[in-house]
Amino acid sequence: MQKIIRIGTRDSQLALWQANKVRKELTELGYESELVPIKSLGDIVLDKPLYELGVTGVFTKNLDIAMLNGDIDIAVHSLKDVPTVLPEGIIQAAVLKRANYTDLLVLKGNEEFFGQPGGIIATGSLRRKAMWLNRYPTHKVEDLRGNVNTRLQKLEDSETWDGAIFAAAGLERLGMRSKGAIPLTWMIPAPAQGAIMVTALENDEFVKDACEQLNHHETKVCVGIEREFLNLLEGGCTAPIGALAYVDDKTEEINFQGVLLKRDGSKKITVKKTAKMGRHRYLAKDCADYVINRGGKELMAEDEEVVAPLQNIYSTKKLSEFQKETLSDTIGIQDSDFIKIRFNRIPPKVMKNEIENVVITSQNGVEALLNSFTKDEMNFKNIFCVGRRTKKLIENRIGKVTYVAKNAKKLADYLSKELKVDEVTYFCSNVRLDVLPAFLKAHDVIVNEVEAYKTMLSSEKISDEVSGVLFYSPSGIESYLTENTANKIAFCIGETTAKEARKHFENVQVANLPSVDSVLELVNSYFSKE
After folding, report:
1. Which of 310, 343, 392, 518 is least buried, going by the fewest C-beta atoms within 10 A?
2. Could you give the number of structural domains in the chain?
């Protein structure tokens, strides 16, 4: 009997509309599903602006927990509400075709207030507020929270507001867009605005296969660029950031525009850039660097209150500013990536002749190849890989995959016993498990290893003032110990990491769930008891 896919969703009218859209598309593909409504913190607490709630993913967190607890199989989100870093074990399973991404001004009366100094509009979005005040500095912006119906009713009931700003997609999906609503085409939308995202557990192959068929490639690429831009600026609900990427059908170019503003709208930094589809890998980074180099970090810092921390902690993985905001004001946080990847320049002679059998066991291997060669330069007859995500990346960027296995051992077994190949070319890291090459060599298969990238320990010396360190993998602990001693508290993402930490640290704390959010909650809880 086929598994019934349980669809987790918020219980607002718009969220249920989006979940039902996913359910309908799954039904058309032959899958059975049911809705499981779950309330979020963002739906419950309506008397505070989003940036004051102090929780990562206020509209997504409860759905993440329900999924990790096994209560639901997938979750449906407005992608603009989803943190740029997902919890450990949860993946982006699908992005549906994007709807209208613009913002709309719903008027209370007429448009005369535009030219008046005392105009008042309402929105709960820092981005919309900052962009409005940047364009209309003499106006006033008041906070507006709640679902679409609630906000429309609050506008109707208000005696002072001239209008309120809404996402066009939300109003249009519910059939609530009024004829007099004004499209704010000058307002750069939130990253991924108008797009619906489906998340799933990384190890649920049945659900991932089902959701993969819902993907809209162009939307996925564009919103991916927007969210990477947001992540690189380390912004979240606490920074007014807009980003929009779209494909020009005539030129096949991706057009990108981004903006970062001061919360009061008094300052802004904008960027515009284009890149050919397929050669857009550095588009988000180039644009984020442009903003940062023109004072972006300083602009964001101007909006932050400086609070002297009572405790200092260090994360061995870069965190977003939104994630850092979840920590108590009494906790200071520094971060750096203690594990880094560097792509090698693969010699052109490797591609001189057609390669019969290619083995790739990670997405980093794919990216390393693309860093050295174009798709047309890679003459591979058969490509064998490990993991669905690696397979998908290969087929999107290089070519068809002949066979995909769940792990290296199963792939080696298939190659040596089922296919009975004589020779393979393995694009790997300088640090790789011996399972696959050792197994193949033991079965008389020649393995030509090409070191496509380096996995590097990238430790930093940490100040004595730091009392706790956040770890996300045993490799992170290994990297940390190359420059530091184990005289601090080790906050670990899971039991595997904790097991390694206990070999060195006296005080090891383990998060309840295998996610970055849960580690941060652990830190808050630990220090609040002192």
Report:
1. 310
2. 5
What's the CA gap between 252 and 286, in Å, rounded? 19
The two three-digit tokens of residue 430, written as one number: 């300088």
The token pair at 76 is: 């449906």
CATH assignment at residue 209: 3.40.190.10
Would you say the pTM of this structure is higher than 0.85? no
**Is 162 annotated as catalytic?**
no
Residues near 410 by beta carbon (within 8 Å), at least 6 away in sequence? none
Same domain for 58 and 149: no
Tokens of 142: 């008041």
Domain that includes residue 71, residue range: 1-96+193-215
Catalytically annotated residue among 43, 64, 73, 81 = 81
Q: Cα(155)–Cα(481) distance, rounded to whole angstroms?
A: 57
In a shared domain, residues 390 and 409: yes
Residues 13 and 66 in one domain: yes
d(CA 83, CA 63): 13
Q: Are residues 28 and 157 in the same domain?
A: no
Nearest Cα to Cα of residue 263 among 102, 523, 457, 52:
52
Q: How far apart are CA 397 and CA 280, in angstroms?
A: 12
What pLDDT, on the 0 to 100 scale, is given for residue 455? 82
Instruction: Write the single-letter amino acid at 400.
Output: K
Together in a domain, 453 and 414:
yes
**Distance (Å, rounded) from C-alpha 369 to C-alpha 392?**
15
438 and 490 co-located in one domain: no
Closest CA to 128 of 150, 152, 104: 104
Report if residue 188 sits inside a domain. Answer: no
Main-chain phi, psi angles of 211, to 5 degrees: -70, -30
